[in-house]
Design a protein that fits this description.
Helices cover about 55% and strands about 5% of the residues. By secondary structure, the protein is mainly α. The protein has one domain (about 5-65).
């Protein structure tokens, strides 16, 4: 399998893992996704788009990061 397919697959798996980890601490980033433009290049360099969230979610995320992960 070409390396770029593996890179894209790894990015997709990371998105799932990140979504699960966020859910475990009661957070959701609804727009969390794979940036399609970063995969459309001759040599894909997949980027994970964390997307948008409301202010409450951003504040909770800051609190979790500052506390070392919240658990």
């Amino acid at each position: 399998m070409p390396t770029e397919k593996l890179d894209i697959r790894a990015a997709e798996e990371t998105i799932l893992t990140l979504r699960d980890a966020l859910t475990a601490v009661g957070l959701s980033l609804p727009s969390l996704s794979l940036d399609s433009a970063s995969c459309a290049r001759d040599v894909p360099a997949p980027l994970i788009d964390l997307g948008r969230c409301d202010v409450d979610t951003a504040q909770r995320l800051v609190s979790l990061i500052r506390s070392g992960g919240g658990g």
